[in-house]
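User: I'm writing a tutorial on reading structure tokens. Could you give me a worked example: one chain, its sequence, then its tokens, then a sentence or two explaining what the tokens reveal?
Assistant: Sure. Here is the example chain.
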Amino acid sequence: MNPSKKPAAANAPEGPPDYRVLGRHAVFPETTHDEVERLNFLAQMNRHLAARVVPGVQRAYEARVRPALCEALGREPRDRHEVRRGLLRDPAFQTWSALRRMTMEQRQQAGLWTALRQGERLAATAAELAPAGGPQLELDPTLPIPRYVSAVDHHCMPGSYHHERFAGDVSAGANYDHGGFVTTAGLLGRYADGGGQAVVQWVRRRLPGFRPRRILDIGCTVGHSALPIAQAFPEAEVVAVDVAAPVLRYAAARAASLGVHNIRFVQASGENLSRFEDQSFDWIQTTMFLHELSTTALTAIFNESRRLLRPGGIVLHVEQPQYSAAMPLFEQALRDWDAFYNNEPFWSRLHEMDLDSHMREAGFHADELIHGGVTAVVDRGLFPDAADDSTEDYGRKAAWHVIGAQRAAA
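And here are its predicted structure tokens:
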């Protein structure tokens, strides 16, 4: 061995892996060389903004914004709203904010274009793998799309999760699946399922004897989090619901292609799951879903979760951390960015809510509540591990809080 040659790990570039290491399945969009390099550039740009530009914004806050606020207010800023108003006048924040919005816009346009140019082929493949009415896909064309979904292009995603460009369309799912690599800079792993893998690991460690027979995932989109749960508990029946047909078609085909068959994707609203009997599930899961709900919808879903949960069962909600007195006001102000500039109108409201109180109002007792934290579980040989990464981009890091409950046994 040449002693001047360093180990490969030491020579590895910092940042996201190459897009080409992502896992493939039958409905994963094909990409050209130029499309791949566009996605790689945007992922690296997101990493640069989080690792290099955000620290500069924080230094600018301490050096310029905070002193100016103290002088203008005659005191320290008292909440994130005052901090945000101060940041809006500073060129460092303006630059970071503009570049972050640009990467979101370009990521969505790039991902959607790739999905649309092969949309008919992807739709035909999905229909063949998992036809509507078959064992893995149940659609309800009469289901109204709630306004908190239909009125918003979530995170700058044209048409959000639900828009259908032609009969059988799966392009929303294809865009969400393959383009998410840019948004998370590869932190969710080979199949973008690091969140689901993390929840499985957390449950196994926290509840080693837990053997769910029936599992419900609400707001499942393309099944990134539901599939690892179904794979981890092959004896269980998994039901995954969402209001959007395009992502459900894609999800069912993706599951079939990956050989996961103990899961059924159903078009339904989590606000009204009256089709299922009381106490008919052992585990109810949501992952990065609550922040896209109106308060009315969130309350209804919490109530339905309590009704559907069997004694001894668990409900788990995985989200970015709540705002608290322990979280610096600068961090809170930057986390609010998604509400103002990334088409997430319920983001701030969700993260300032007292979720424990809402869980108790749904019927859970205080001693049934669960709190914890998880980071994405990935193939560390190929992907960055959020558990080892102190870089914070305030909204997309693959590190989440868990709030839930375990219903008392009968």
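What the tokens reveal: The radius of gyration is 22 Å. The longest helix spans residues 33-73.
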